[in-house]
Amino acid sequence: MSVQERKQRERAERERLIVATARELAEQQGWDAVTTRRLAERIEYSQPVLYSHFRGKREIIGAVALEGATEMAAALRAATSAEHTPRARVTALAHAYLDFAERNPAVYDALFQLDGGLTYAQEDTPEPLKDAFAALLECLTDVAGDGIHPGLFTEVFWASLHGLATLTRAGRLLPGDAGQRVRLLVDRLAVA
Amino acid sequence: MSVQERKQRERAERERLIVATARELAEQQGWDAVTTRRLAERIEYSQPVLYSHFRGKREIIGAVALEGATEMAAALRAATSAEHTPRARVTALAHAYLDFAERNPAVYDALFQLDGGLTYAQEDTPEPLKDAFAALLECLTDVAGDGIHPGLFTEVFWASLHGLATLTRAGRLLPGDAGQRVRLLVDRLAVA
DNA sequence: GACCCGATCCTAGCACCGCTAGACAATCGA
DNA sequence: TCGATTGTCTAGCGGTGCTAGGATCGGGTC
Fold it and tell me: Would you state the CATH architecture of domain B58-189?
């Protein structure tokens, strides 16, 4: 059975290579540049090999999104754990979120802008996505305020961050005042 | 000169037809379905005719966006003008904004998600875009709060609405609690 | 060691995309 | 009436995501 195991291992390794390469290419040149031909060339296999791992380009985007969700959750938790007051934690969370979006635009797009074939806010939502939302929830529950459902508050806060992230990156908002916008948002939304 | 005038008129008319058809097709079947071939077929001209009006598909998207911006500004002003307190105006504004996004998803995408080749937040930003932002600003200035720049406040409020609109439509938020989310947002962000 | 057979991979091609060159027809001014 | 200009179309380029079908390789069996 050792041969089969080796093959399985190699196959899994190649799958990771595909996802990593797609992500790298997307970060370098944008998702438009991630074509099945280019991707196949970079991993040094022919196009159809991609389709033996994923149903199509959409699923590859989805795989990058899941990888990104795990990283984002970790980044958010790391940023908030260093702070000692609820208010400071929320500020750190907001900055960490926007930083992640700015530093990993392609991953952020895969998560929240593109169609990766993933389901959100459902029971069958993949675990990494649920966990990323949980990372937000953990921090934001403390400042939701009395009588406000933490989930609802988290959704609103998250939507605001998402709006800032996407509008800034799309050139709809000038990046200069980002700090002021975060401060205003946290000041108003978070209950002390 | 009458002949030339007639031709100019017909040409302008055809341009309107292109934009209207693109918009209609996008609303019916999504922007992916708006291909130059299909668009040409619908207006009953050949493909190259499109390129005598617009540089390319991107400019067509931009034209739809500008048309949409004008409509959105009008819709926001209409909604807010019926209310008599600042707080009620802001609530009406938020609902009108999200309604517009929900009822005209393709136009909303052209405005804020897709690349229509337009510049935002600059001096050479097209007038309709500036005016749409102005419509938000007019209403939100009253609730920005002391010492807060109305423009900054408007950006943050707008980003929050944009986040809610896009995440909801992309399936990232369930549409059920939309009303509660708006109330929470207005309650916290708007200073009475 | 030779053979079979299944898994694996690639070549070639499909229909479609945005966009454009060049041929052709219609129309205008002289 | 004729030449020039304008307008439109046909045909085609290089690209896209995706797939059918043949070649090749390697493990398991005799």
Answer: Orthogonal Bundle (1.10)
